[in-house]
Amino acid sequence: MRLGVDFGTTHTVAALVDRGNYPTVGFEWGDSFPSVIAVRAHDGVVRYGQEAEEVAGDPGFALIRSFKRLVQDAGPMTELPVAGRSYRVADLLTGYFARLRDALRYSSNAELDSDEPLEVAVSVPANATSDQRFLTLDGFRRAGFEVVTLLNEPSAAGFEYGHRFRRTVTSKREHVLVYDLGGGTFDASLIHMTGLVNEVVASAGLPRLGGDDFDEAILALCLDRAGAPSLGDGVRAQLKELVRTQKEALLPQSRRFVLDLSSIGRPPLSLPLDEVHAVCQPLVEHTLETIEEVLARGAGAALSARDLAGLYVVGGASAYPLIGRRLREEYGQPRVKRSPHPFAATAIGLACFLDDDAGYELSDCLTRHFGVFREAQAGREVSFDPIFSRDTRLPGPKEPPLASVRRYRPAHNLGHFSFVECSNLRDGRPDGFVSPWDGITFPFDRSLRGRDDLQRVPVRRLDGTLPEVEERYECTSSGLFQVTLTCLEDGWSRSFQIARHS
Predict the structure, then answer these.
(1) Per-residue CA distances from 175 to 315, 347, 360 (Å)
(2) What's the pLDDT score for residue 93?
(3) β-strands 197-206, 186-194: how paired?
(4) pLDDT tier, 114 (very low <50, low <70, confident <90, very high otherwise)
C-alpha cells in the first residue's frame, strides 16, 4: 500500500493511492491521528495519538501538544524532560510513528493486511532544517515505514492544486503560489507548472508562526478582558484548546468570539470578533510580507499577483476568516483558491506524487543557505564560506546528490568547522532564521590523528608543511547534508552527517 503522510503540529493525516483517487484515511475516532504524546508521571509509560488524547484531562499524565515544534530545535541525541524523566526526542518521534503505523493497520478504513508493506511519501515544512528532515525521515523508517521520498509541504500541496485546478494554468499564467499555514509554521512557495512537471522557483517560511500563535494571541486577549489571574500550565493548556476549537468554528459571517471560562470560575466571555482580529492582524501581515518576498524572487524577476494562475490556501490554520479576507483584498477574489480539504491538502498531494500512473514530476530547491564558519589567522579570526545557496536546484530522488568540492593546502594544524543554515545572508554573513549545528574538528597535522582531545589542542600555523586537503559536501534530494574531509596525500578521510547532537 502506498500512502502520503503529513505529520502536522496538531494532527497527522494520511491519504491513499487508489487507482487515480487519493482518499484520506479515516480512523475509528475521526479523520486524523492526533499529534499528541502523554507520559504517565508515576511510571513513565508513554501514550501516543488518540490514546494520549483520551487522557488529556487526567492529572496523572503530562501532555505534550504541538510536538512537531520541538523537533524544529532537536538533534539526534536531544533529550526532553517530561514528568521528572528524560526522553530522547528521536525515540518519542519513532514511538509516535510506530503507533500511527498500528492505527493505520488495525484502526482505520485503509484495509491493510497485517504484513503489507507501507510505502510512504512524507513531508516537512519548507523551512525545515537538516536536523528536522533527518529526524522525520529516520523516525518513519525506524517505525517500520518504507519511505519512498521526503517532500516540502507546500511542494506537495502544489500537486493537489494540479490535481484539482490544472485548468487554471495557461500559457500566460503558469505560476501558482502556495500559502500554507499549519499549526506551527507558515510556508509560501512559488511553483512553475508545465504539464505534469512542478518546478519550485522560490520558497520562504516562518518557522515560529502558525495556528498555535494565533491561539496564544487570542487567549491572552481573553484572559486580559476577563481579568483572570495567572494560571497553572495545565489550566492554561486546557483553555488554549478551547480557544483553538472556537477559532476553528468561526465562519466568515461570525461577529463574536465566545469562550467558556467556567474552569477558572469566570462567566462566559463574549468579544466582538473585530477585537480578536486586531490581535491576530500582525501575524497575518507577516505572512503577506513573506508572500511578497517569494514573489520578488520568482523566476529571476519580480512577479505580481496578476501573473499567478492561483494563490492556493492550505493548512488547517488557514481557515481563520481574517486570512481569506486579507488575501482577497491584496490579490483579488478570482485568484485566491482554498483547498476543499485544507487539513489534508499536503497528504493528498504526497499521494498524487507517489502515484506512478499519474506521472507527476517535481523539481524542488533548497529553501535555506548552508555554509561553514572556519578559523583563520591561527584562530584569531573566523571566516564564513557559503557552500549551497538558497534556491539551488535539488537533485531528483533517483539522481546522485548535489556536490560541492573544495581543495586547498591548509595553513593550520587543525580545522574547526561550524556549520550553519540560515534563511538569509547579509554582507556574506548568516542572517534571519539561523540554525547552528555541532562543529567538527579535523586534524590536518598527521601527528594529531587518532586523538580524542582535539578540542583542547591549540591552533598553530604550519605554512607550507601540510598536504593538500579536499572538502566534499553533498546534499540529497531530501535536503540532508554530509561532509567528507580527505587528506589527498594518503587518502585518510572522515565523513560527518551534519546534525545537532546536543
Answers:
(1) 20, 21, 16
(2) 96
(3) antiparallel
(4) confident
Burial class (CB in 10 A: 0-12, 13-18, 19+), 162: buried
> Distance of alpha carbon 83 from its chain centroid, rounded?
27
CA–CA separation, 268 and 258 (whole Å)? 7
Backbone angles phi, psi at 144, to 5 degrees: 105, 5
Mean of per-residue pLDDT scores for the chain: 90
- Whether 23 and 144 map to the same domain: the answer is yes
- The angle at the Cα of 358, spanning 354 to 362, to the nearest 5 degrees, equals 60
> Helices (H), strands (E): how many in the chain?
10, 27
Q: Say if residues 309 and 169 touch (Cβ distance below 8 Å).
A: yes
Nearest to 6 by CA among 249, 235, 349: 349
Task: For residue 270, give the 3-state DSSP assignment.
Answer: strand
What does the pLDDT read at residue 425? Answer: 86
> 175-181 and 146-152: which strand pairing?
unpaired
Q: Which residue has the higher pLDDT, 251 or 427?
A: 251
AA identity, residue 158:
G
Does residue 288 belong to any structural domain of this protein?
Answer: no
Amino acid occupying residue 430: P
Say how far apart CA 327 and CA 287 lie, in whole Å.
10
Here the cell at position 98 is 510506530
Check if the beta carbon of residue 221 is closer than 8 Å to that of residue 271.
yes
Half-sphere exposure of 37 (CA within 13 A, CB side): 25
Q: What confidence score (pLDDT) does residue 152 get?
A: 94
Q: What is the largest CA-CA distance in the chain?
A: 79
Question: At 93, phi and psi to the nearest 5?
Answer: -65, -45
Q: Is residue 286 part of a domain?
A: no
Domain that holds residue 191: 2-206+293-360
User: Are 354 and 376 members of one domain?
Assistant: no
Cβ atoms of residues 331 and 325 within 8 Å:
no
166 and 248, same structural domain? no
pLDDT band with cut points at 50, 70 and 90 for residue 500: low
Residue bearing cell 499521494: 351
Question: Above 50 in pLDDT, residue 222?
Answer: yes
**Continuous H helices in 227-320:** 233-248, 273-297
Q: Are residues 153 and 32 in the same domain?
A: yes
Q: How many residues can be counted in the chain?
A: 502
Percentage of residues in the chain having pLDDT higher than 90: 62
CA-wise closest residue to 97 among 45, 141, 42: 141
CATH of the domain at 66: 3.30.420.40
Please say whether the beta carbons of 460 and 444 come within 8 A.
Answer: no
The pLDDT of 349-370, averaged and rounded, is 92
Angle between helices 321-331 and 273-297 (to 10 degrees): 50
Residue 379's pLDDT is 45
**CB of 82 within 8 A of CB of 65?**
no
Q: Identify whether 100 is part of a domain.
A: yes
